[in-house]
Amino acid sequence: MTGTPGDASGRNCYDELFDRLSVRSSTPLAVESVAEAYLDGKPQVLRKKRTTRRERDRLFWTSRPVIECPSESWNSEVMVLALALARSPGDDARNEELMRTSWCLATVAAWCAVLGLDDHYGLLSRGATTSYNKVCAQLWHPTIGWTERWYFGGAMDFGDAEAPYALPANVEDMRQRITDFVKRPEYDWVETSPSRTLGLFGLDFVACRHFRVPVPASAWYRSRTESKIAA
Questions:
Q1: How far apart are CA 63 and CA 50, in angstroms?
Q2: How many CB atoms lie within 10 A of CB 137?
Q3: Which of 29, 55, 78, 215 to pair with 39, CA 20 to 30 A apart?
Q4: Residue 12: CA count within 13 A, CB half-sphere
């Protein structure tokens, strides 16, 4: 990335990146990609000089991606992290706390249980109580009303976070947990999908990708229960 207020181009480097990304992706995705670059400490060099945290903060928070940020993007994980970072500049302890939540840990562990990868699940379960016992695993589940926003952005306003998402030591306990969850109608994303009723269920997954919303666990949990029934 090049350019900064006051240089020859008169452009903010984050504005330039946003413009390039907007050509091939939606505005929300472009905004979140710029925010990811900011959180990654980029650009590290401008005009052959290393940038400081203060310079990057000033550039990012005065850039168009922030000023014109769509409402749904403020609910994204990356923008929440950017806001939290701005509220605690230089607070390394607070920033470390923000990184102690993980959707990946809960998702991968559950998939291991679903796919019968018992050894892999065991490693994750033990790690959750030892090596990374300070990480809070969690999953997000859409609730009643999710269809109002799913296809337009901001769907994560309609849901519950299952946190902490404890990983039982016994993988069979995890499988029973999955089976019990699928029976709960208030979290049945598949059955309440209007696009599925019309034979267009794929639209829900397109929306997941477009708005960076995780595919609800109730959908892929079913691969465990349905395969069990088929067997």
A1: 19
A2: 23
A3: 215
A4: 19
Q: What is the CA radius of gyration of the chain?
A: 21
Comparing CA positions, the residue from 147, 156, 152, 155 lying closest to residue 196 is: 147
- How far apart CA 110 and CA 175 sit, in angstroms, is 8
- Give me the amino acid identity at 28: P
Residue 68 identity:
E
H/E run at residue 97: helix 92-98
Q: How many CB atoms lie within 10 A of CB 154?
A: 19
Examine residue 214 and say whether the peptide bond preceding it is cis (omega within 30 degrees of 0): no
Helices (H), 116-216: 118-129, 171-182, 194-197, 202-211
**Residue 82: how many CB atoms within 10 A of its CB?**
23
For residue 213, give the nearest of 189, 185, 182 by alpha carbon.
189
Rounded distance between C-alpha atoms, residue 42 and residue 22, angstroms: 18
Single-letter amino acid, residue 73: S
Alpha-carbon span 31 to 28, nearest angstrom: 5
Taking CA atoms, 208 is separated from 26, 147, 172, in Å, by: 13, 12, 30
Q: Which residues pair with 140 in a beta bridge?
A: 161
Using one digit for the tens of pLDDT, what is the confidence trace for 57-88? 889 988 988 888 877 777 777 887 887 776 55
CA 115 – CA 149 distance, rounded (Å): 31
Considering the entire predicted model, what is its pTM?
Answer: 0.56
Distance CA 227, CA 178 (A): 13
What percent of the chain clears pLDDT 90, i.e. is strictly above it? 21
Phi, psi of 172 (to 5 degrees): -65, -30
